[in-house]
Queue: 3 jobs
Job 1
Amino acid sequence: MPTFRKKIRLGDILIQRGLVTQEQLEQALEEQRRNDKSLMLGEIFVNLNIVTQEQIDSLLCEHLGIESADLRKVDFDEKIVHLINENIARRYCIIPFALDTEQANAVKVAMVDPMNYVAMDDISIITGMNVVPVLATRGQINSMIDRHYGKEQAIAMAEMYRKEQEAYEQDEEDTGRKEDIENSPIVLLVKGIIEQAVRERASDIHIEPFEYDVKVRFRVDGTLREIITYEKTLLAAIVARVKVLSGMDISEKRKPQDGRITIDIEHQEYDIRVSALPTVFGEKIVMRLASKSAFKKDKKDLGLRPEDMVLFDHILKNPHGIILVTGPTGSGKSTTLYTALNELSTEYVNIITVEDPVEANIEGVNQVQVNEKAGLTFANALRSILRQDPDIIMIGEIRDSETAEIAVKASITGHLVVSTLHTNSTASAVGRLTDMGVESYLLADSLVGIIAQRLVRRLCDSCKKPKKADYTDKKLLGLDENADVTIYEPCGCPLCGNTGYHNRVGIYEIMNMTPRVKRMVAINATSDEIQKVAEEEGMNTLRKSASKYVLEGVTSVNELIRATFEA
């Protein structure tokens, strides 16, 4: 019998190695019994932050005598992948990916549980080959199943829906027929779209109707990419299902609607904001995905450089005043705000927020949801909040003069106010507030710091390639034209989905309201004049922040141009 057929007790080995205690083992076993028996014990330990995935993988590989693999770096053989069908792959959470070169008639199969001998025997019978298990994570296996079987699944679901509709039309008089809603093709299709989007790290899902078909696109790392195209006949059913999930009126098709879905995918809770918009070819659906845990970042994970971190901490120490976070939609403003609130939240302060919508729950913080229909606007909520003895107030966004005026008055009367504003730079935020009717002398007195930010895509470490910076590159980076500088540019590989980029990092421009800057604000100086003084006072601009990341090989010149075009 091969070494990997040995059955091991992972908990006992972890205790022997001193990685967990008996009490922690019992806690993990109880968690497995209570919540999800489908999860392996190792996965429970990782979810509870008791051990790391790397420690579990190392132990399993050592004791079973098998290899582990990062499937994002594996070159899949499509013929081998399709030796089994998608149902088997999903049932056992496995995927075959290559022939084993060391033994005849053997196939390498990525498995989340390499001790699942029932699965191995089934694969062996189906393929007529010996199975060589390779350890991989559940998330990576599911992602690869989506990538290699996803279109087949969608086509199959569409075909099932069509047959179901035909059968229903022929059987209209059979009122006793009761279908299993949760297993109906459209339900599974919509669920599959959302799950695939999560696994591919998408921030938005676009379901777009055109004259003859329906396109599904995902926004990944800020860029839209087409995933699949469906027949136009599926549009009505897909839209209806999304409306049901998000609490919209399915009978209303002539005006825009907004809704919300909370869904659990692979043991992580996601909050999805849904928008339906009537177009000439039908209703377009956009779903914005947000993991609730993503808003609870440590400030060290925001991407702040050491000098920016010092300024960030200094601004947060102010007991009263206004802190603004500015930038376009999707630039990470909400994440920065929530990080600041987590930093400020203690048992000694009363923090109240007014948001539209509340994007994540924060322990120890009172959060208010704006409800325009009920008359609960930002301004009305703020007036009530001021009677609740707050120390810190967070306003989701300053949208109008009334909200701006109340925010400034609250800051001057001893409260710390943090909020967002849609402007392109720190200096232009001052002009926006004065345009809203806030007096410049009040603004100078109340502002304590402004943070402008963007997100730039990180170059994929596996495939980025070096190049000598040319004259144009050096000019953009603010370097001498004779400098000998090596920068990096995107290439593309399986790890990054052939885009050349993987994940994003924040670039920041933090304006500390020094006495000189305050004087410029008080005399109603222009944005350019305020910007110039702030830079003389040591402020790093967005362009400088992005340039440093380019020179360090973190991002590319193209990303610098895209993110700081107006900076």
Job 2
Amino acid sequence: MLPLNENGNQGSSPQVQAPASSLSVFDVVRVLWNGKWVMILFALIGATVGFYKANWEIPMYTSDALIQINTKGGQPTAAIGATTGLLEVQSPANAEMMLMKSRMVLEKVVDEQHLRFHAKPIGDKDRILHREGRMDLELLELPGQGFKARALGKDSFAVVSHGKEIVRGAVGETYREDVNGDILVIRVGLLKAKAGQEFSLSVSSELAAISSLANGLSVSEAGKSSGSGMIKIIFSHRYADRAAAILNSVVNTYQRQNVELRGAEAEKTLEFLDEQLPGVKAKLDSIEAVLAKYRREMGTVDISGETSSSLGRSVDLQKQLADLDQQKAEALRVYTPEHPNIQAIELKRKALLGELGKVKSVMKKLPEKQQELLRLQGEVELNNKLYTTMLNNAQQLRVVRAGELGNVRIVDHARIAERTSYPNKRSIEFMYLGICLGIGAAILILFRIFSRKGIRNSSEVENATGISVYAKVPESRNKLLRMRKHATKNFLVVDDPDDRASEAFRSLLTAVDFSLEKNQVLMVSGLIPGVGKSFVAENIAALAAQMGRRVLLIDGDMRRGRVKSRSKDGLANVLMHKCSAADAITPSSVENLFVMGGGHTQLYPSELLRGDTFKELLNELRPQYDMVIVDTPPISLVTDATLIYPLVDFSLIVLHYGKHSVPEVVETLASLDRIKDCPKAFVLNHCERGRHGYGYGYYGYYSYGYYKKKK
């Protein structure tokens, strides 16, 4: 037995509890399970929306092509030998990818593939069922808007506007028709549609078509490392053959323009060489003439082997310096002077100049005749090499120009895709199913969080009031309790003794027995309607009667009584002295349990309860019964309960799980204590078993009655 507090009530030790607003994983699972029908509803909504969305999306086919970029210049070096630095202008893959999506390339693709002309299928039903027709246009000029094409047969169609037929035609033919002083021009290249299917006709601007094509192209560098020179192009379209055709047109146009660009570059370089060759040839002839004249005048001059080697080394160094200067000039067309490539050329040039200076210092020690002869021979040999190199370069450029060579090679052309790449119907369906389930779960959890403002744990009310909670009555599994049309004269503890609520009532009666002596009066009340106080009173009475006690259950709610009685008279009739207590009391369906209904009165029940009449009635009934239970109206609704409260020996206040706040309970108790300090206890009704015992969940409420289990 729990110890009594200073007010004579049984209290409990304070307990530490989690905040009422928090939800554990187990709570969330339980909330979702309790709201399984809501989740099933959202699942059906998600499945329906997902199925509709997956079938509404237009199936797309994806094709891809692969090209190789030779960043070192012309690609077929075997045909022209080792290409010179004149055309060795690096072309990074990033720049090539930008060129591929440029208007220079895509403009020709738009014209070649007739991408400005559109015939969009009409009809939501055909779209969902994927029965849309297809019409490819090769030429279209519209004098306005609102024009449609209607399929008439396998290869015939009609153009209509505002319900009026403008022209009839066949596939492959060009038609021109005057429409209000303007010209309608149309040529259909392909028609695959059932008779009666319609298409919306439109013409987009060239810039819009180019932009749409550029947005649809996916260009990226293939390979794990950058600089591989392999570029992959991907394009998607609702028709597989069109996707491959458009993509092949893009890569072919790009390759053709690359060849033209390379040919134009070779042509310009060749023109430059042709302009420079006569001057170099004239300089070479002049130096050779000077050398010949010098030899005639000076005669034979002996040159040692070491001197001859120095001469050859000097010529080679000067030739290398000339090549470096040419490489630097070409590199400056691409890079800035601070670029590492330019700096590397400068370092190499300085090294060659230093070595050339050493060779010249050795040659200065020779006699003047030998120095002059070596100088003239060196200039002749150097100019001869330059002239020969320029001739070779010019010949190679002529080969490049004649062979139309570029630095782009198509590795893989686009192929017609066999399967759609988009949409993934299953993914879309699961996505919308998950979204709707998430929305449903969020609604349930948020509803539970915002509804968890009332008392949900016995320690909350015990710590705040110092009054014990005698029992936590869980929600009954008896479904007929919620079906008012199945009223019964039996009680839950009688009709379904194995129910979890019945077991809670046994524990409650045990606690009440420790607080009540024989022939005492027990009051059962609640703060607000619908907490199940009548249900608690009836089942305690029935359970006590089953244990052999003589019990009287009085319906103190003379306004809205719930206790069933076989007599038309009740408490109101007794208090008005229209009948005796014995006439108003009738036996119930449970042995040893007697009931007195609320009766009927035209007066206010509170007026009948004032005075000593009800007190005298209780004093009269006490010796006749082992226990008298009075079911009162809600405390906060009318004053009847506060009038009955001072006349009883013990009070049970029924609280609805999750509906009452602690301040509300404290305020109600304060109003009762101002009348009389009577022993009392709480009953927490409508609880659901959680991992810490009963105390979480909400299924509804019993209201004032009880209902029979179907046999």
Job 3
Amino acid sequence: MKRRNAEVRDYYRLRYVGEPDYCAVTQSLAHTVVYAREDDDSYRSEIWVKDLESGQSVRVTAGGGYECSPRLSEDGASLLFVSDVSGTAQIYIAKRGTAEGGGSRERLGETCFSAPRPLTHMRYGVHGPRWSPDGSRIAFLCDCEPDLTDELLTVPLTETEREEVEALRSRRPVAITDYGYKADEDGGFTETRTTHLFVVDAQSGQVRKLSDGERDHVMPVWSPDGRRILATSNRQRPREESIGMDLFLIDVETGEIRQLSKENWIAYYPASFYPRFTPDGRQVVFGALYPDLSGNMPLTRLYRMEAEPGAPEESIWPESAPCHEATCFLYNGETMARGYEKGQVSEDGRYLYFISGWKGEVNLYRAAVTGEPEIVQLTKGEHYYSSMGEIRGGRMALLKGDFTHTARIVLYDTVTGEETVAVDSNAWLPEEVALESPREMWIDTMDGMSRVQGWVLPPMNREEGRRYPAVLYIHGGPTPFYGYGMTYEHEALAGAGMAVIFCNPRGSSGYGSEHESNRAAMDGTAMYDLLQFVREACRRFDFIDRERLGVTGGSYGGYMTNWIVSHSRVFRAAVTQRSIASELIEYASADMAGSSAGYRDFRDFMTHEIERSPVAYADRIHIPFLILHALGDMRCPVEHAHQLFTAVKDTHPDLPVRMVLFPGGNHEMNNHGSMSHRIRHYQEMIDWFVRYL
């Protein structure tokens, strides 16, 4: 039977698994399933537990619409998770028992879970909960206000109080005294809150605050004996070191906080890498930002040190490492569901297993914790891994996907290297939809300095001998990279009768530091890489009609879309998404403040910013032009869209120009807000290309 073409409405059927947590004692697997409901246009997240021996799964819920962060205790007797059923995210615990035990229970094969009970009642909710090794306590993070007592933090807001707070916030003047007063994820101005570490007794619910000050404390990890917590914080860093973080040891009983690392910036932003204790508690393994003096995005490298202040920080990253860095910035692959850490220490303490991307593949690697630095690549193939749970009983759960499968949960045996699929939430997709693996391409760049990898996705159910329009889709960043992962947005374009061209020009990570050049991403080098790749794709694939080419992209990809259509005549239509049009807007109005340092004077800086702003060349845009943007975007404020629309329409009164602004949402508008907005966003893009190509 002929499989049908992909449609954007398929997003209502897609289910995304995430946050896998494997328990060896009970042979069970907890995870989330994230999806969108069409009836009320909302995103939902559910907790499921699968019995790996019987194959049966059960949902465990406190009744919330968004429930996440499932964690099985070491013995599998309890499950904790976070639910928003009370209006704020709080920790709930469900006990595992037998079906004969009675009460309100969810069945799982021969076992069941009791009705979850609330454990915390924090004023602003919680996130990141983690069991202590013996299961008696739970560490979690909570946002705090400096003028709020610890006692008030544990008293939840009533619905009336919550409405009053929101009303006050909407009327309150905003006083600004320093940079960093905007945050895209908060949808506006940043609050005065900081993130702090707490511990709650799993039985009594008694809460203790462990951190202090006016700086954030994140990525908590228990020591094996449960007496200390390792946390990452900027408490000893000046505020201008916005991504500067250090490791701290916190004594759970006394609350004493001691700084552990000093030499390196712990990897928290832009890609977090949780530190880990070795099983004996004597050493700490962590990822740190390796300085790049060329101005590129710092790489994440691996280090070890004794779990005592003042100990040397030793690199376990050999110079001849077979991969780029100890994390990755995979751009494609559906990521609606969240994951856990990117690294885990083996049960014998000899190795650190981690995920890294290299030349489009995202694979599993193993670094030696003891002895001489050594890194071994454990998996190979055209796929990606995106997260991993803790190693228990020699196995760990990971998310794994490829071009024709959304991420599935797989169990990896650290002894044999064998892998089995445990959960596949979209098994129907490759059977029903005419998915194809894109055709891979490599080109040598015109300047001879690098090679560019990319792919061409053919139109679905295409006819031999027929030529089809093609769309160049430019990724954001510019640091992320396209890899071997499905992007259903691309599939929907292919389903509408277009080929999709996507590649990793200069600026993309995963190909070495010279290729990952911020300068090359912005000075025109990446643009020529893209144009050269499109030209070669048209030459190699006879189903592409080179007279009907479109271009699109979001964020940096939107910036490059604006730039490339104003500096070339290759494309017939363009769609720019949440893009940068004016560097002066980005300098003063975005949540990432700019700087005039290094210029002769401020006027020289202003002139340079205008010269590298795509809106300054709006008179050179001569093709149908669609602008898609979210009103709540703080990374690329919506004023970019307003200026670009006005400039193109002003200089081309008769040119088809359309701007669609989406209420709410933020910069990652395709992963937030409502699914109807996401579908409308994609459909606007597809309809534009169908009409003008």
